[in-house]
User: Which sequence fits this backbone?
């Protein structure tokens, strides 16, 4: 858990630094990786929340999309 926080924060910070010094593509890729690592424990909670939104929830309740969410519910997203 702590390793994920350190890895995510470091990669996000390094990506931000790369954007500032003029390497935006590589920096954004590194920032995206850091964001996914930092918030990987939150994705299952977000999936449940999105399924309960009135209009959007109908779309996410469809069998082919719901099976994707059910696969990762209660587990950390592998990075």
Assistant:
């Amino acid at each position: 858990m702590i390793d994920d926080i350190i890895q995510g924060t470091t990669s996000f910070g390094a990506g931000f630094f790369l954007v500032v010094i003029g390497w935006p593509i590589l920096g954004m890729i590194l920032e995206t990786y850091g964001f996914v690592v930092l918030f990987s424990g939150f994705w299952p909670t977000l999936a449940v929340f999105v399924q309960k939104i009135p209009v959007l929830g109908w779309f996410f309740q469809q069998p082919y999309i719901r099976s994707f969410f059910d696969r990762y519910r209660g587990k950390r997203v592998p990075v």
